Amino acid sequence: MNVKLAKLFIEKGYLSLDNLKEAVEEQKSTN
Q1: Is 16 exposed, middle or buried (0-12, 13-18, 19+ CB in 10 A)?
Q2: What 8-state DSSP symbol labels residue 20?
Q3: Contacts of 27 (CB under 8 A, 6+ apart)
Q4: pTM of the prediction?
Q5: pLDDT (tens digit per residue) in 13-31
Q6: Dihedral of CA 14/17/19/20: which sign?
Q7: What end-to-end distance do the CA atoms of the chain give, in Å?
Q8: What is the pLDDT of residue 16?
Q9: How far apart are CA 10 and CA 30, in angstroms?
Q10: In angstroms, rounded to a whole number, what is the distance separating the alpha carbons of residues 24 and 7?
């Protein structure tokens, strides 16, 4: 996972497991 992305998630409060999993799946599909 991209560090900048992780920091962004932390700042925005997205690091609940469900949201994190969704975000990671989105990253995989967009890359």
Answers
A1: exposed
A2: H
A3: 1, 2, 5
A4: 0.36
A5: 765 667 777 878 888 887 6
A6: positive
A7: 12
A8: 65
A9: 21
A10: 14
